[in-house]
Design a protein that fits this description.
The complex is a heterodimer of chains A (325) and B (289). With 325 residues, chain A is an all-alpha fold. Chain A is built from 16 helices and two strands. Chain A has one domain: Orthogonal Bundle (ABC transporter involved in vitamin B12 uptake, BtuC). Helix content of chain A is 76%, strand content 1%. In chain B, strands 1-2 form a two-stranded antiparallel sheet. Classes of the chains: A mainly alpha (325), B mainly alpha (289).
Amino acid sequence: MRLGETLRRPTFWLIVAVVLVFTLLPLRGNNVGLREDLLLAAVYVTLATNLNLMIGYAGYVNFGNIVFFGLGGYLCVWLVNTHAWPLVAAALFAGVIVSLVGLLFGLGILRLRGAHFALATIGVNEGVKAFVANFTPWGGSTGIYLSIQAYQPLGGAAQALWTIYFLLVAVMGLSLALSYGIKNSKFGLGLRAIGQNEDAAIVLGVPTRRYKALVYSASAFLPAVAGALFFFKSAFIQPDDAYDLALSTEAIVAVMLGGQGTLVGPALGAFLYEELRSTLLTAQAFSNFQLVIAGALLLLIVQFVPGGLMGWIYRRWPGMKRVLE
Amino acid sequence: MFGILASIVDGVLVGSVYGLAAMGLTLIWGVMDVINLSHGAMIVAGMFGLFYLTMLGVPPYAAIAPVLVAGFGLGVGLYWIAVHRMIGRPPLMSLLATFAVNMVLIGLGTAVWGTVLFNVPVTLPGISLRGYTFTGTHIMAAVLTAVIAGLLYLFLYRTRPGKAIRAVAGNREAAELNGIPTTQVLALAFGLGVALACISGALIATLFPFTILSGTAYQLKSFVVTVLGGLGNPAGALFGGVALGLLEGLLTPFMPVSWTTVIEFGVFVIVLVAFPGGLFGFLRRARSR
């Protein structure tokens, strides 16, 4: 798609606006609480938007999407901790490696379709988690702890938290841009053909195997970078946090809530879900029921509004299809 | 040497129970192309069912009958709540629906029971051979698994509802045209699948201590077993269970337990990719060639 056309699309400007709001809002009055809230939201948006490349565009549900996030986190924390790499280099390197691993996995397991593929992704997640829990260079089940020294190159811990926040917002913006770019490309068209009817796509000459492996790999890169930044911020990483199946699930809920296959939907869903979650977590009575509520929400969406929020908006105001992609 | 053999035999005994759990999963898949991702929660329901029945003074093995009946009811209920609208829709939707049920049930369970370890004390005399003891409960569980698998076979092949299930699995439209009430049959099959999961849960509860979260591990084992045996094939599930038990028994003497999981999932993904029809189906086809 040409630049001129991109600049005329409202969705493009929406992405720019979201990134600007995320950047500027917490700066007003040095609002650290808001920053932490938005940081988590940015992580959710990143995860949901990239997962949507698989679920929404190609029609493949990836239950193990959190593998990328966790592996990225591990690689980065390990490189920073034992090899004293600078954060940005470590995060980017982690993204590239995880993306390559994703490509390898993808070429293997994407021969499978539908339910078989979903099962394989659960297997990959558990297998990787079990492997990392036993892998001694990465601390086995105790994980890796970063020393406070790791924050020195970023100007101390307080300054580092801001830097990491801005980097995560950038990753979120890039995720939205990637989703936007793919959606409006021939590649994206091929993916959506796969999602609609894979056999027909093959007949029409879509290189399905290659496309599926590519999108699996592409959906791995930014979550891995986000994981790298996120776990650098937490200063420690252990298998149960890194491969938290709950987070994987919540990303799926976010995608379905907003509307799979749309660009705005998953991001909106992720943001709303994260806000709902943090409200519920602070309300004492609900903190134990977080997953129950997420589950009930998912069940209702799947049963009654499979198109999610965006699907509902499109039905109500068909003209919105051109404004919010 | 005998120690390894004993470990393998024990693995096979326990593995047959995994096979029973997987049978429930694979039956549902075979009939309605739905992978029940709430399978683990159903297994845990069976565990807790047994726990409370034994608390009330019911002998553990007698408690299996009420667990079966309750499991069947639970399954039929779940079919109408979560699965019915998903029939004929893309697999994504039924996966998400059953996954959501799992989240709700496990979430509620965790809120009620926490993650405390539960244990059903069962004492059965074991069999001692050359210094190794084969635990009584393991043998009993394997025997009961064989009995239940036999009963399932009789039900599916010798009774009218069983034949209706197989007809619907074979071709739903043709079955409907022949006057089979397919919707009821689907509900029946789902109920049966969940009942099998609950019974296997009850049997596992007689073997090992459990928590509300144990379901995940056994659900994953069921996946491994189903993939070994081929999705949609109950006989294959039993074979897959025994194969997994064999593998576990063979590995246990040589490496720490935590590594066996890594190998299990490695085998799982490799088999899934190399033989999507299941190892069992592959072997059977190879033999008939």
